[in-house]
Design brief:
Layout (H helix, E strand, L loop, with lengths): L22 E3 L8 E6 L14 H9 L5 E2 L4 E2 L5 E6 L7 H18 L4 E6 L5 H12 L2 E6 L18 H7 L8 E6 L6 H9 L3 E4 H7 L1 H13 L4 E7 L21 H12 L4 E7 L10 H18 L1
């Protein structure tokens, strides 16, 4: 008798459902649930980056997990994540790539009114067109940005990069300053000029010192209360360099002094329960420098945890 399994399937257990089985290829149908959108752009990074490899690594990392959450007793096996595939990037033109991202995300959101986008970058520049499209399609949107950096670099020195997405969003009025919450900003990776800029713009900036002193639960609950009083939707932009480098070896800008994975997970789990929470992007994962896929696996784990909390 011939014994064959699909490529890469070394072992199968009839009682185990792999999280990768949640993915379903989009067939053009209207989507009423979660949709995965890959954005493989790394050319706009100001440092060497293989972040364009992250969408594929994210999909692969899902196979490392099952669909069952033992702590809550929830099983995601009946959930579906529709995989829209990757947005085709221009080979050399970052501006054209951003246009493609904005046009594609906007059209998908317009045609799928109940779609919850899970956008996997790519460097952080992809958040500029993605959030602009989300705001245009869905209406008044508050954004929680988990990040070590403010990402409001000037546009004269280097043009549009992964250090400028929130500068562009603010200056082009896609979001107002008081609708942006930056959580995890920390020492020695920002400049005084940019801290001054976000404060002048009315952005609420939460440093790592505040996270550690007040506690992430208090920080997020306070933000959610404010968001609930003024916004129609809440979008999360997660730069993995908000984590301490020990937890994100595959993040190009990872440095000491950041969050633990448990703290970040607690924050996202709190946000997941908000009825306004309507979309997320995860950026700045470079699989080419990752160690044992730790950072890619963490991003996949965070999404699974988030889905479990929303299901519950």
């Amino acid at each position: 008798m011939i014994h064959l399994t699909p490529p890469g399937n070394l072992f199968q257990d009839q009682y185990v459902t792999r999280a990768s089985e949640l993915l379903r290829t989009w067939q053009g149908e209207v989507v009423h649930s979660y949709g995965l959108i890959g954005v493989p752009l790394a050319k706009s990074s100001i440092s060497h980056s293989g972040a364009h490899l992250a969408p594929a690594a994210f999909r692969q990392s899902l196979s490392s997990f099952t669909t069952y959450a033992v702590e809550s007793g929830c099983d995601l096996q009946r959930e579906r994540i529709i995989d829209f595939g990757d947005i085709a990037m221009h080979a050399t033109d970052v501006t054209e790539s951003h246009k493609r991202i904005k046009d594609t995300v906007y059209e998908l959101l317009q045609e799928n009114e109940k779609l919850f986008p899970i956008i996997i970058g790519g460097d952080h520049s992809v958040s500029y067109p993605a959030i602009a499209a989300f705001q245009q399609a869905r209406g008044k949107t508050a954004v929680i940005q988990f990040d070590a950096h403010c990402d409001v670099r000037n546009l004269q020195d280097g043009g549009v990069t992964n250090g400028t997405p929130f500068r562009k969003l603010l200056e082009e009025k896609h979001i107002e300053g008081d609708y942006l919450y930056q959580v995890g900003i920390r020492n020695f990776v920002n400049s005084e000029a940019y801290i001054h800029y976000v404060k002048q713009a009315g952005v609420r900036m939460v440093t790592m010192e505040e996270v550690e002193t007040v506690g992430i639960q208090s920080v997020i609950q306070s933000i959610l209360k404010e968001v609930g009083e003024k916004a129609e939707h809440l979008y999360v932009s997660l730069d993995m360099d908000v984590l301490d480098q020990a937890y994100a070896p595959g993040c190009p800008a990872a440095a000491p002094g950041g969050m633990t994975s448990s703290v970040l997970m607690e924050a996202l789990n709190l946000i997941a329960r908000s009825p306004l929470f309507s979309g997320i992007d995860i950026v700045e994962v470079d699989p080419s420098v990752d160690f044992r896929s730790m950072t890619s696996k963490l991003s996949a784990y965070l999404i699974l945890s988030l889905l479990t909390k929303r299901m519950k």
